[in-house]
# Entry
Amino acid sequence: MCRIAAYTGPDIPLENIIVRPAHSLLEQSQHATEAKLAVNGDGFGISWYGADDAPGLYRDVLPAWADDNLTNLCRMVRSHLFIAHVRASTMGETSRANCHPFKYGKWSFCHNGQIPHFKTIRRRMLAALPDDLFEAMQGTTDSEMIFLTLLANGLDDDPAAAMRATLDQIGPAGADGPIKLTCVFSDGQALYAFRYASGGQPPSLYASGVLDNGGRSLASEPLCGVAERWTEIPTDTICVLTGDGLAISPQKGRAAA
# Structure
């Protein structure tokens, strides 16, 4: 499974979340403790927000620990909101187009988990996309399809309703195994997160309290390495993280079934 770290708050260097903590995302790329695979070496990516509405994006297929550009970028770039992802692929080849985060307009998105029956629904879900989103599809992952389907289902207006509609389109799990989704996404104003599993537990996700600088973070595993200092995002919920705090709401519809 992949690992995710995200931040919102006062401007900080990206390295304060991605590189420097004791259990940073870079550390989790080789030594994850709450995933089936300890190593996440199938590429990485960062989306970050500045003065423009649209996020910046940097992705590569190298393992995160093997790219000096990543640590230099994280040292020099500052942002008030960013999302970072290290990939352990379950769907789609290792290519830059398949690395997370994905972006479209003001939105950036990353995902940890899988839709085991994706091959049987991919053509149907592609056909349901409006032309502009169909043309935006660059890779072959279930993750990018989830993102574009969320946009088609009204992500701009109501993220919770868009997620419910997207789960309905994905449909029930097939014989290959349960659907497991942990998604983190942003419009540049807030961080959104969602956890869902049709059976068992979805990939882990935690929210920090107020950090030393007044900001807040989401991460697949607590960046300090101490789970008791973080709040686990419950299954079948959607949450919104801003500088004012964390709001968690039960997800209605298929996610709560």
Remarks:
- The chain has a mean pLDDT of 91.
- Residues 117 and 174 are 6 Å apart (CA to CA).
- The first helix runs from residue 15 to 18.
